[in-house]
């Protein structure tokens, strides 16, 4: 039988089905700034589903910097970094990032996703190995799909498995371990001291994707490697500007030779337009605030400790989270979606996380903190999550009894 694209896309009904049941949780339009409180459908909703860990996305100084950049440079660069799209502002940010991460040089891409596509597809070849934690972010996985090298995954944070897998790889192959610094759904931290030790034993290189570690871990928010004092033992540190740094874009920092190689080989950089002036200026302003106002990071950790304590007291399984990303394991897709909807009706925004973002049995509500949340907001959210959990469990028990 002839197969047509049209038939395939028309057969996709899952989203419609969820809409019909009133539990569709994606693409919820927000008509305000991304802050601790947002407006959805004309209602005020407390935001516990954001990656704006430092609460900077609506900061007046950052907005001013973005406006000034637009006034000076216009709205776009109309080309890639490689050709006409490099501004002095891009170079300024790269130099700042290199200093901040403690590396010789840095290179900015238009998104964090593109960093992983560019770096991983470029650095290893046909006879080489890319080694991933099974919980790594989708952009790392997609980066490996663009690479011709062999891809091997080890069990999440399982160092014996990492060691065993590396032991089987030939001496003469390049080996690059790519790992999230902070795991984006589980909120736990990579075991970097052990990874470094194992990598050194096998002659492997390490790239830490610190999308969720920057602005959160380490002195002045310098990230996971700095947190462990291992900056010099990690070959590459990458990150995004779409979380703590209140903008859009991403970077990789490394030694000068690696950055030079990437500048001339990474297709996701060379064949894509550069970050807009407003986005770059926002990052520079956000980094200044982060470095000069360390109390924000302290507040983020106070909020995290408070929320974590309350969620545990309420009896929730929050896994191995050690960061402002707190998974609330529900382990049932329908109940997770239903809770998301009822919570939003009650003024609380959380994200449902189902397969393939986590294993099918690990369905969770992702609860994330910002430095700007108040204890009252956190207490209100945890109280409501608790009550709604009981309500949804009772509804499921009733349905099963029928
Ligand atoms: N890496 C990780 C670990 C992430 O969580 C994300 C975003 N969710 C990215 C990369 C991609 O970053 P960006 O949003 O800048 O594309």
UniProtKB/TrEMBL annotation:
<keyword id="KW-0808">Transferase</keyword>
<keyword id="KW-0663">Pyridoxal phosphate</keyword>
<dbReference type="GO" id="GO:0008483">
    <property type="term" value="F:transaminase activity"/>
</dbReference>
<dbReference type="Pfam" id="PF00155">
    <property type="entry name" value="Aminotran_1_2"/>
</dbReference>
<comment type="pathway">
    <text>Lipid metabolism.</text>
</comment>
<dbReference type="InterPro" id="IPR001917">
    <property type="entry name" value="Aminotrans_II_pyridoxalP_BS"/>
</dbReference>
<dbReference type="InterPro" id="IPR015422">
    <property type="entry name" value="PyrdxlP-dep_Trfase_small"/>
</dbReference>
<dbReference type="InterPro" id="IPR015421">
    <property type="entry name" value="PyrdxlP-dep_Trfase_major"/>
</dbReference>
<protein>
    <submittedName>
        <fullName>Aminotransferase class I/II-fold pyridoxal phosphate-dependent enzyme</fullName>
    </submittedName>
</protein>
<feature type="domain" description="Aminotransferase class I/classII large">
    <location>
        <begin position="45"/>
        <end position="385"/>
    </location>
</feature>
<dbReference type="InterPro" id="IPR004839">
    <property type="entry name" value="Aminotransferase_I/II_large"/>
</dbReference>
<dbReference type="InterPro" id="IPR050087">
    <property type="entry name" value="AON_synthase_class-II"/>
</dbReference>
<comment type="similarity">
    <text>Belongs to the class-II pyridoxal-phosphate-dependent aminotransferase family.</text>
</comment>
<keyword id="KW-0032">Aminotransferase</keyword>
<dbReference type="InterPro" id="IPR015424">
    <property type="entry name" value="PyrdxlP-dep_Trfase"/>
</dbReference>
């Amino acid at each position: 039988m002839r197969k047509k694209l049209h038939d395939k896309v028309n057969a996709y009904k899952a989203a419609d089905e969820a809409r019909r049941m009133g539990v569709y949780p994606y693409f919820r339009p927000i008509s305000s700034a991304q802050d601790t409180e947002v407006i959805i459908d004309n209602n005020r909703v407390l935001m516990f589903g954001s990656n704006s860990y430092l609460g900077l996305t609506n900061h007046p100084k950052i907005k001013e910097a973005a406006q000034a950049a637009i006034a000076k440079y216009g709205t776009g660069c109309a080309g890639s970094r490689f050709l006409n799209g490099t501004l002095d502002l891009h170079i300024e940010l790269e130099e700042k990032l290199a200093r901040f991460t403690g590396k010789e040089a840095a290179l900015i891409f238009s998104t964090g996703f593109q960093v992983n596509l560019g770096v991983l597809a470029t650095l290893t070849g046909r006879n080489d190995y890319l080694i991933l934690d099974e919980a790594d972010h989708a952009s790392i996985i997609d980066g490996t799909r663009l690479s011709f090298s062999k891809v091997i995954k080890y069990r999440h944070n399982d160092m014996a498995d990492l060691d065993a897998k590396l032991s089987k790889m030939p001496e003469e192959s390049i080996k690059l371990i790519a790992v999230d610094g902070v795991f984006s759904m589980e909120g736990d931290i990579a075991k970097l001291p052990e990874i470094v030790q194992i990598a050194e034993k096998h002659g492997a290189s390490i790239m830490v994707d610190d999308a969720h570690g920057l602005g959160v871990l380490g002195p002045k928010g310098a990230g996971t490697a700095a947190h462990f004092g291992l900056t010099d033992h990690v070959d590459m540190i990458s990150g995004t500007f779409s979380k703590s740094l209140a903008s859009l874009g991403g970077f990789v920092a490394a030694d000068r030779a690696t950055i030079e190689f990437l500048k001339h080989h990474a297709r996701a950089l060379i064949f894509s337009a550069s970050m807009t002036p407003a986005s770059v200026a926002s990052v520079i302003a956000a980094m200044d605030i982060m470095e000069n106002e360390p109390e924000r990071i302290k507040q983020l950790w106070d909020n995290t400790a408070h929320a974590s304590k309350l969620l545990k007291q309420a009896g929730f399984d929050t896994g191995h989270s050690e960061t402002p990303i707190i998974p609330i394991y529900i382990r049932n897709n329908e109940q997770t979606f239903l809770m998301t909807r009822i919570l939003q009706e009650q003024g609380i925004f959380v994200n449902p996380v189902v397969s393939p973002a986590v294993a099918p049995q690990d369905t969770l509500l992702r609860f994330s903190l910002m430095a700007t949340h108040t204890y009252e907001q956190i207490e209100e959210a945890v109280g409501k999550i608790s009550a709604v959990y009981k309500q949804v469990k009772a509804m499921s028990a009733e349905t099963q009894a029928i």
